[in-house]
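To assess whether the prediction recovers the assembly geometry, we first specified each molecular entity separately, as shown.
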Amino acid sequence: MENRENTILPVTNTSTLERVRHVRQSKMVQRILDKDTTVLVDDPLENEMVLNMGPQHPATHGVLRVLLRIDGETVIKCVPELGYLHRGFEKLAENMTYHEFIPHTDRLDYIAPLSNNVAIAMAIEKAAGVEIPERAKWIRMMVCEVARISSHLLAMGCHAMDVGALTIFLWTFGEREKLYDIIEQICGARMTTSYTRVGGVSNDVDEAVIRQLRTWMNAFPAILKDCESLMLRNRIFIDRMAGVGYVSRDKAIALGMTGPCLRGSGVEYDLRRTMPYLNYDQVDFDVITHNDGDCWGRFMVRAQEMRESVKILHQILDKMPEGPVMADNPNKVMPRKGEIYTKMEELISDFMLINYGTMPPKGEVYSAIESSKGELGFFIVSDGTGHPWKLKIRSPSTTNLQALKFMAEGSMISDVVSIIGSIDPVMGEADK
Amino acid sequence: MAVTKEAICEVLAPICGTVQTVEHHGDITFLIDKGDLIEAGHELKSHPRTLFNLLIDITAIDQYRRKNRFEMVYILFSLDHSTRIRLKVPLDEYDEPRCPSFTAVYENANWYERETYDMYGIIFDGHPDLRRFYMPEDFVDPETGDPLYPLRKDFPVMGIQGSLPIPEKNPM
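The predicted structure of the complete assembly is given in tokenized form:
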């Protein structure tokens, strides 16, 4: 071990590195090869190597690329690299009206598109100063919670699959399929929902769908219990999860994590509670936290949050009032098609809205919701025209992924898979 | 309890003097000079009356038509007081803006600043690892060889031909 300082990587002596320096990721390679490593591990295998994981790796949940410098099986340096799914949504947003941007948010976090729709609509409404009707608020809360359960189910199933338990994956996907059926009946599409509009939601939820949702909600806790019973007392599963990827409370805050990752480290930060939006101050629920700070803690937070979401859904369906689902604000809110064809005033405002868009007053607003991954925020700079001057997406997946480096360094290479699963990144959102 | 605007101004007063504030739709923004940024950040993070311990996001705004083209935006949150504020720092250079790195105060500023550098070309002095975030390292103008920053207002939406090599077409 004492000659570690003098150990030269085999690759540095050859012309390979010179060649690699000149190709695209030269700075990235330098980053992984620099010597300021903090972890020294006594390992019988003396040679270090650089391993490239992704971007086409099933365990990276999309196109995340991670460069690992490993000593034996221990990760001593980890460099995550993003941008393989970068589509430039922020640039596109500057060249379209606010309304036109709503479908693009479906492609951000494509596991829970409904909560993205709600987040962008709320940000535009805050910028434009539009009040939405009560029923629309409750419907938005409902779809947010459905999206949260759907996303957590996927996180749970994929995380279990990453560590080798395949059955859970099939079970949770069966449940997601039922949720997709309900979502399809609510907004006509399974994934590309585009459900919200500026000033409300695109269409009302009818009684049959609510009945179907109630049936599902009554059956779901038992199924969740079945899923958990396969894992929570499973020795292999616990060994792969407990104590892996530990982040302390203070470190989690310093790394800027939000959502289940932060709550898994014992910080009670949930925007539904700390800064209530919509009608979340009128429903009763617990903010789930775990003090473990490891993969197990984050997993358990997600599992229990699904129960809380079902609890919230029951209250929402009980409290949802009757009424319109779109605000009556002809200057800013698109009128319904039936009115456009029959009324002159609506035809004029539709013409103006299609051509010039909703025009918020000059100024900057930031609005955020608690999506399933964490704090999903939109920062809108308006210059008074129908196009945003700037629209910044604060995506929770990016910020949570920043913690990957800290969690992975010093752990075993197989734990990296488990850690990525516990962060639950969606690359559509992380890469924007 | 939420921290009031006046309390934050009082905390910042020894560092920045009188702080200009902007309020729009309930969001409070504090305008801070570039030179005071790091000190003000430390103070806001550690002062018991504010305790802004969570850095939510960093971004920049390209005010193309103004003389001071770029503005930095910092969104901070206080877990103890449940308050969200924004700091705004105007940068005075037009073409090659520089800003002190916020990583000295908040560790997670690392990736946010890399993203801002990638998109706007703002150089952060003292950043530990300033390289491209989303775009490839060789994202340059094919004619002049200057690096391109896609979110600047003078970058066309359709992109610049030849800046990103397209794979060759399959001869089949």
